[in-house]
Amino acid sequence: MLEDTYGHSPIKKMFELADVYGVGYDEERAAKKPIRLGIIGAGGVALSKHIPAIMRLKTIWEPVELVAVSRRDERAGKKIESMYGCRWCADYGQMIEKETLDGVLVLGPDDLHAEHSIACMERGIAVLVEKPITRSLVQSRKMCEVAEERNVPLMTVSNKRCSPPYRRAKQFVENGPVSNPAMFCGKFNLGYDYVDLFEAGTIHLFDLTRFFMGDVNTVNAIGVNKYHRNRWPYPIDNAMVQFEFTSGAVGTVYTSATAVSLKPWERVEVYANKAWLSVEDQYELVLYDSEQGPAKSWKPVIPNTLIFDEEFGGFMGLIENFLQVIRGEEKPIVTGWDGHRAYELNVASHLSLARKARVELPLDPEAADAECRQWLRAEG
Ligand SMILES: NC(=O)c1ccc[n+]([C@@H]2O[C@H](COP(=O)([O-])OP(=O)(O)OC[C@H]3O[C@@H](n4cnc5c(N)ncnc54)[C@H](O)[C@@H]3O)[C@@H](O)[C@H]2O)c1
Prior knowledge:
Strand content: 15-25%
Shape: globular
Distance between the termini: 44 Å
Number of domains: 2
Number of helices: 13
Largest sheet: 9 strands, mixed
Bound molecules: nicotinamide-adenine-dinucleotide
Structural class: alpha/beta
CATH topology of the largest domain: Dihydrodipicolinate Reductase, domain 2
CATH superfamily of the largest domain: Dihydrodipicolinate Reductase, domain 2
């Protein structure tokens, strides 16, 4: 596992070994079992986040090979082939049939995630699928069931869980002083008008809610369509969601599609007994654990050449964990069922808005999907 350095090179490499970028030969890492990866849907997030993270892992001696990628556009496919020395295949089915792959990153459009993931798992290939896991609870349950039946790893992308501020915050919740939290508060701003407020954006916050607080018993949402800011019809542009957790704790997430995106857009707060913490914009972690003592805070040193976006964004840690899960060496940081449960908070929020009432979890996937779709059609 990557050392918890808040995103810069490991101290020993930097100071003792004079290896400031952490790229010197790493005997232990290089000795791991080689893993062969493929990508289905090599578009924006693949090119900007996942492939750079794989390349940085290779740079620090991780034995991983990007063997093949699939996307339908030939010009872009050929470019990826020449840039990364992998094979491009227009048809993902042919790619997973012809190539010998240990794992596939499923990074295509949301409504194809289930088809692509199941096709891989049925061939015994491990899957890391982007968020949201898919666009229906029936499908996400099916994906998790196929993974269990075939005994194949299924993980959902939750890069934020591996991003240094959230990773360290989680340690304070697990090991103290912010133990056994009583309350969670998260906010998410979305200035883009072309993605659905809950499903495409706030889903990150729904996953973080469960990451810090565990399972949710009830969901209660209120919302308004004040400025009709979504490019296509969508029933709300601002909403607040309240949670009651299985642990007895309470929490809230508030989310806005009418704010701006290029200003602070995300905050998480976790409150415990005489201690609380906040993570501002996936950047600064502040721990308040004493009435009189100072607050403790951590920030990355941005102009420092030793900060790697691939690591700070969390993609590198997540993919490293995926490789270790394939090798049978680590447990997944985020499972398929975690993706299903995060999506369930999205559906439950819609249902609570539709019914103007509190919703109990777990949801019945068939009934919840149908009611949610009907509300989105009627109100959107
Ligand atoms: N974790 C994050 O922070 C984050 C950020 C952005 C996007 N995402 C998610 O990543 C996924 C992809 O988003 P994007 O912005 O990269 O979209 P994109 O449209 O840029 O890329 C998707 C790619 O999939 C390809 N594709 C479509 N159908 C295909 C098929 N049948 N076979 C092979 N390739 C196919 C398209 O040609 C396209 O290149 C979405 O699920 C999105 O929600 C996550």
